[in-house]
Amino acid sequence: MTPLVSILLPTFDRPQFLEQALVSALNQTYPHIEIIICDNSQNDATEQVVNSYLTSPSGSKIRYVRNNTNIGPTANQQKCFRLAKGEYINYLMDDDLFHPRKIELMLPYLMDNPKIGLVTSLKQLINHFGEPIRISNAPPFKLSTIKKPAMRGQTLIQSMLTDTKNYIGEPTTVLFRKADLLEPFGTFGGKQAHNNVDVASWIALLVKKDAVFLQEPLSSFRKHPTQLTNTLLSRMGCQCDWIDATLLAKKQQIFDDSSTFVKIVNRLGKTVMDNFPKWNEATNSLYLDELLERVRQLAVASEKTKKLSSLAKDLKKLTLQLEKSKKTSILISETCDAI
């Protein structure tokens, strides 16, 4: 049996990188694939690249959709997912590459064991020109072995939340079963992530299932100047997402013991206390409501745990400080409007 695998390729104004990604998808040794390309681009360059492959012998595997307007990266990823007809899903970001045997090597783990929620691997880091830099660092836990391929999903979730690191990898690295993702891509517990879109879905997939983490790098992650992961807004979004994921994981009883939750919330709380006031000032209170929501949520969670009582008091003080800042911003805005 050769089930259909959908390779989802959301793209935006990167025709040169997109072509390289598309070729790596077409070169898969596993034959039964479809490639869904959803294009957010502002010009026709990407469409021209794709059209040149539609008439090739493998062109029937490609489905190209040009969006009328730029619907944003997350909505574009979700659109790809809705259009997919395959039983299995692997995203391919438009600046990344697949190893030729990626699908062939990963798929059997999912086909042989319904308890596996996703398969991932180490990755090759490449530069702007596609030249290899190094293999990604191994995570702080043992990778899958032939004798013991499955890794407990909830343990991986706790490891990511404890260290606020995406150990599973970017969307390109992961193969999963479409039917297992019950919420839109980038959503966990009904909450849409701002930045950690992939992490939200990895957690959702692993709440009740296990993972396989292969040592062989089966994808390439491109590092280049146009990536936005180091901007202030990205850091703010990431921190909000880690807070959301932690509190939602607590609701779903993912933590093995209360000490793990206390450790994570203490760490998140310190980051909030150290950064939220200056982030709010740097962005002229444009995202104050988002920051305030997370401070309040952390304060409530801390109040319920004796070991976090000191943090709860600090967070309450920060809440009052940010609320005062909000009132001041509103007053200034109303005064300007009156003038």
UniProtKB/TrEMBL annotation:
Sorted alphabetically, the keyword list is: Coiled coil, Transferase
Residue ranges of domain Glycosyltransferase 2-like in the record: 6-138
Cross-referenced InterPro entries: Glyco_trans_2-like, Nucleotide-diphossugar_trans
Write out the coiled-coil annotation as residue ranges.
Answer: 301-328
Q: Is-annotated flag, keyword Glycoprotein? A: no
Molecular functions (GO terms)? hexosyltransferase activity
> Which family does the record assign?
Belongs to the glycosyltransferase 2 family.
Q: What is this protein called?
A: Glycosyltransferase
